[in-house]
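From the shared-data thread, chain only:
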Amino acid sequence: MAHVVIVGAGQAGAACAAKLRALGFAGSVTMIGEEPAPPYQRPPLSKAYLLGEMEEERLWLRSADFYADQGIALRLGAKVDGIDTAARVVTVGGEAVGYDALVLTTGSVPRRLPAAVGGDLAGVFTVRTLADVDAMRGEFVAGRRLVIVGGGYIGLEAAAVGAKLGLDVTVLEMAPRILQRVAAPETSDFFRALHAAHGVKILESTGLERLLGEGRVTGVRLANGQELAADFVIAGVGILPATALAEAAGIAVENGIACDAMGRTSAPDVWAAGDCASFPWKGGRLRLESVGNAIDMAEAVAENICGAAKAYEAKPWFWSDQYDCKLQIAGLNTGYDQIVTRPGEGGAVSFWYYRGGSLLAVDAMNDSRAYMVGKRLIEMGKSPDPAAVADPVVELKGLLKA
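Structure, as tokens:
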């Protein structure tokens, strides 16, 4: 294999390139990224970086000289215009770059508020890239009014930063409760109370009619006609897999770039990994938006490019930091029919998701032990008695032996 080209210089792309070299791959490796910065961590953008607690270089996944030392050619600030899977070529700024294997790690793009409702006004931001956060950092001044559209994790993390910096923060959530798509009512209740304690106003079952202002946003009008003043607005309404390049090249897309169990797409010698990719999972297809999946799937693809022929086995885990609370999530809660609450020490708590007696997932708030034990149980395929989980007298480690 002479030349591996990786399109996308994020967490997955960097993991794939590094793994290829760690496996002893001696061919050429080129990684192409649209952003001018070297591969960096995205999770701290809406937390420590936005708060000013982390400098840009600390976001970088590797030191500046790592890629040169490893013989990985980095082409940053470069947009791939197209892929010709028959000729095995990607076009970058009019230049044709040939490949023997191509890995698509294009990640995801944020959903934006439509221009028809004022989404194109100045002062309206999304949280996805370093440039996004750099553009909005100057807006976070104590006393200013921030309206966040969307009560998911990104919106709530931004709300926590705003509250910590002394802003007047309001979160709008169209669904009946925050985090409805991703968490149980118990987790929603926990974070609603946490934000209320920090002065954040959360308006649930509240739709947005439009943003107000001429040229720059000055407020929002709700679906019920109420108007709220706003100095700036953050849209935290989810992300979409970045599949445009693949689709234009005729590569199959199904909730992301469709891969087989090895990470191969429908095109010869084209692979995909990370947020942009979907893969077989329990009789269906799954796409995961997480750091863990980006790293693990990208490394599995690197192994398979090197001939491992090994199916990727996802082990879903996620996290979110809000104020002094660290939420850690193990597993996927889809289809749960029972929630078991386990109190921890010092206000810590965890919620355990079951379906038909089988443990699916755990949400742990400031309880790393519950998270680690729950994650291990899920990976082992073991489901402890819900009554034992709920009893704080029962040792967590004992659940692994039951």
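The mean pLDDT is 96.
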